[in-house]
Amino acid sequence: MKLTPYKSDGTVSLFPFGLLLIWLVPFAPALAETRIDTKLEMTNRLGGETLYLAPGDYGSVTLEGFMFDEPITIVSESAGQATIESLTISGSTNLIFEGIHFESPSNGTSASSIVSIKDSDNIQINHSEINGPVDDVYDGHVGVRVTDSSNVKIEGNFIHDVKRAGIFENTDGLIVAENTADYLGDDNYKFIAVNDVLIENNIGARHVFPSEGAHLDFIQFQGRDSSDIVIRGNLLLPENKTNIQGIFLDDAHYTNVLIEQNIIVTGMIRGISLSSGTNVVARDNTVLDIDGAGSKATKVMVVGERYGNIQGSYLQDAGVGDNLTLQQADPSRALHYDDVFENATVGLGMDVLDLMPIPDSLAQKYGAYERLLELLGL
């Protein structure tokens, strides 16, 4: 297989990158079992280059011990046309993948993942598509799994046809932003023992196909303590399931947490929930209940400060104060959903246009107004 499809946009010859390039040439049986025993010769020597992948199937890629002083960017020459069946990165630094299609030919198991990052630093997976087979089976792979790492960014990806979009554990300096998930079998994102975390502007799965008895969450923290967390601007508008909890932090202690400008529609009471924390603020979020599904209320319930939020609850709870509590039981009574939003009682299948704010209403003073205008393009 020729190496000529690969190009460098820097001034360094391609020759020093030969080891990495051989590892990433399009998959062929003769190369599938090739070992790169001399890859450590590159450690801490090179970086700052962009490597372009020609269209093709690159098989399963394992990068272990690749350590660069400056980032190496590996990008599909034509967006999405370079396909990697699975990517495992361990003990490595300064690797960026852009515009790749990570597509597993098998469904895998709950212990497997399509993209795995472990014991690594300064790794990014950006503007890529990550999925298992599109075959209506959702009980296998995790899309992205990050463990025991630091300074990891997962941004702008479309993750679908897997069990969970992402699991992140024991990682510091984590960004999960601008991703869209869909066609899942369980939680969207799960976080365990993470610190210095930004979870921003992610769009949750509209289609979820859980196993019987599954406990579904959009964004879940659990297991061990986490700190310095910002959860901002995330959107959940389900289309086929009402029993998805929104932002749920439990079973640990959480320190320095800001939750703001999120929009959650669900049939569960826990729109935003945090059970144990220090210096916790939940402000300017919109959490609305789907009528006739599960709970009759969806609330912001945190141990800490709560203000500026819009939440849906029972008729007798409706009121204006630090938070705005709406009701959808009686359109003739005050503070009905229709007083604030264009069509927020539509239930499953709601889109952002249904949440168009009523002019001069309380939607301008409470809730995720800024994020809503951004999503509406206003």
From TrEMBL:
- List residues of the Right handed beta helix domain: 86-203
Identify one Pfam family in the record.
Answer: Beta_helix
Which Gene3D superfamilies does the protein's record reference?
Answer: Single-stranded right-handed beta-helix, Pectin lyase-like
Q: Sorted alphabetically, which SUPFAM superfamilies does this protein's record hold?
A: Pectin lyase-like
InterPro entries attached here?
Answer: Beta_helix (IPR039448), Pectin_lyas_fold (IPR012334), Pectin_lyase_fold/virulence (IPR011050)
Q: What is this protein called?
A: Right handed beta helix domain-containing protein
Query: In which organism is this protein found?
Result: Boseongicola aestuarii
